[in-house]
């Protein structure tokens, strides 16, 4: 019901900043989310299941690798289009945006950017169409915020590499056909390897019992003497900057995505506040409710402008990693606070699955942690403005 009535907040006419093509793309994804995600997502979360049939549909609507060139199965779109797609998907659920942003920014992007032409042609079209699912293995049990300390390593065995180690908290893990895995070579240099489902010694157990991102698969990637063909090494990058460049793209997508979650909460809260009466008048008529709604809309508007500006910088290849960190950090915190404030506007009704706030709120607890925690992004900004590295 709420999804059919959805009215997107645009207080500062941000729409005027988009091209007709941007609006067409956004509206088509919005329509798909209304039809295919909204009606089923609460039940999927309650059951702690990713609706697997959505993967092929995400491929069909162009949500996988929108900015990857058409030659490789992508749509060749710009960064604003990518952001708008993430915004609409996350209005549905962070799990759906996660599925698209991992596949696009963390699997297709490194293969496109650092892969050989053979690797691009072999993997990208299948990932773009959703025939293959991807995962990105950086985080380890003992190395989350400091991925540079990773222990996963590979050694050169002449005609193949031998990979050992484990990755943890990996989106899509048990479902993935193609994993981009970051590991150290014998000299301790971080490099990317493509590990495929079914390689002997490779297992991917699922992580159960999550209260957040329940409609997303999370798991481990375990490598026990996995023989990786030499042609599966990504030849175009060495060092931690490889995975961190992928994170720039995914963090950018999150800065847009969470606007969708916030708008969904605001839309439901505004409508409810006009319908629900207490003391013989709509609760939207009380000053304290108006304060919440006005502040929510102000924060959404600021986040929309920040994301748009970051998108224009990225279109011109001018966005710095620190600018991306600031936008990811600001917009996720904004969305989490809005999920809480809008839930309060609904009183007891706000805790039910009939409304999206609790689901978004729980999801956003992961979003504020993954792709760099809230505090790590603050320290990246701190380092950028002072020139002093607080991590050392
Ligand atoms: P540091 O010594 O600062 O840097 C190492 C090298 O990397 C370069 N660099 C970057 N390059 C591109 N983009 C960035 N954002 C970069 N940040 C740093 C840097 O210039 C250096 O290059 P070079 O040529 O000198 O070697 O590295 P550090 O070890 O001190 O760590 C810095 C820190 C803490 C900022 C970084 O490691 C970090 O961002 N930590 C957070 C980890 C994180 O975000 N993990 C995310 C895992 S993936 C995930 O969560 C997916 S969720 C999926 C979903 O959506 O479902
Ligand atoms: P830690 O690094 O142990 O941090 C714990 C706390 O310490 C945090 O509050 C942190 O901010 C703080 N802290 C750490 N260092 C400092 C410091 N120097 N100064 C101040 N405070 C500090 N990873 C992948 O590689 N691929 C994925 O697909 C992926 N998907 C994920 C999906 C979900 C649902 C979740 C929850 C996580 C996922 N991650 C993935 C992992 C995610 O990136 C990490 O959880 C995140 O980077 C934080 O690492 P950690 O959990 O080990 O926390």
N to C succession of SSEs: HHHHHEEEEEEEHEEHHHH
Number of strands: 9
- What would you call the structural class? alpha+beta
CATH class placement of the largest domain: Mainly Alpha
The side-by-side strand order for the widest beta sheet comes to 2-3-7-6
CATH architecture of the largest domain: Up-down Bundle
Count of discrete structural domains:
3
| CATH-level-4 superfamily name of the largest domain | Butyryl-CoA Dehydrogenase, subunit A, domain 3
Could you name the ranges where pLDDT drops below 50 across 5 or more consecutive residues? none
How helix-rich are the residues, as a percent range?
Answer: 40-55%
Q: How would a crystallographer describe the biggest sheet?
A: 4 strands, antiparallel
Strand content: 5-15%
Ligand inventory reads: 3-thiaglutaryl-CoA, flavin-adenine dinucleotide
Rg on CA atoms, Å: 21 Å
């Amino acid at each position: 019901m709420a999804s059919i009535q959805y009215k997107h907040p645009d207080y500062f006419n941000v729409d005027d900043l988009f091209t007709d093509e941007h609006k067409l793309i956004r509206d088509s994804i919005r329509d798909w989310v209304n039809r295919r995600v909204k009606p089923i997502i609460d039940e999927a979360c309650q059951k702690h299941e990713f609706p697997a049939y959505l993967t092929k549909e995400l491929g069909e609507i162009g949500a996988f690798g929108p900015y990857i060139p058409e030659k490789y199965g992508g749509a060749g779109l710009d960064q604003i289009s990518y952001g708008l797609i993430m915004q609409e998907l996350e209005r549905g659920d962070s799990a759906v945006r996660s599925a698209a942003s991992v596949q696009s920014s963390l699997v297709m992007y490194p293969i496109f950017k650092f892969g050989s032409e053979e690797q691009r042609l072999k993997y990208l079209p299948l990932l773009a169409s959703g025939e293959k699912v991807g995962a990105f293995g950086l985080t380890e049990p003992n190395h989350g915020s400091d991925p540079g300390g990773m222990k996963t390593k590979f050694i050169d065995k002449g005609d193949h590499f031998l990979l050992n180690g484990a990755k943890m908290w990996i989106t899509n893990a048990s479902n993935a056909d193609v994993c981009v895995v970051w590991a150290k070579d014998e000299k301790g240099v971080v490099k990317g390897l493509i590990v495929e489902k079914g390689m002997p010694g490779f297992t991917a157990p699922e992580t159960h019992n999550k209260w957040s991102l329940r409609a997303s698969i999370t798991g481990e990637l375990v490598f026990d003497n996995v023989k990786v063909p030499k042609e599966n090494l990504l030849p175009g990058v060495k060092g931690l900057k490889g995975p961190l460049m992928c994170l720039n793209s995914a963090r950018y997508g999150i800065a847009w995505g969470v606007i969708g979650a916030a708008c969904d909460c605001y839309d439901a809260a505004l409508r409810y506040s006009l319908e629900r009466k207490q003391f013989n008048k709509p609760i939207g008529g009380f000053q304290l409710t108006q304060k919440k709604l006005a502040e929510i809309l102000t924060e959404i508007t600021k986040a929309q402008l920040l994301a748009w500006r970051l998108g224009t910088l990225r279109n011109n290849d001018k966005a710095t990693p620190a600018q991306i960190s600031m936008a990811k950090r600001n917009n996720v915190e904004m969305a989490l606070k809005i999920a809480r404030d809008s839930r309060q506007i609904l009183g007891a009704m706000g805790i039910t699955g009939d409304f999206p706030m609790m689901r978004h709120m729980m999801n956003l607890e992961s979003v504020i942690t993954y792709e760099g925690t809230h505090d790590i992004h603050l320290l990246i900004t701190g380092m950028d403005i002072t020139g002093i590295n607080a991590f050392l």
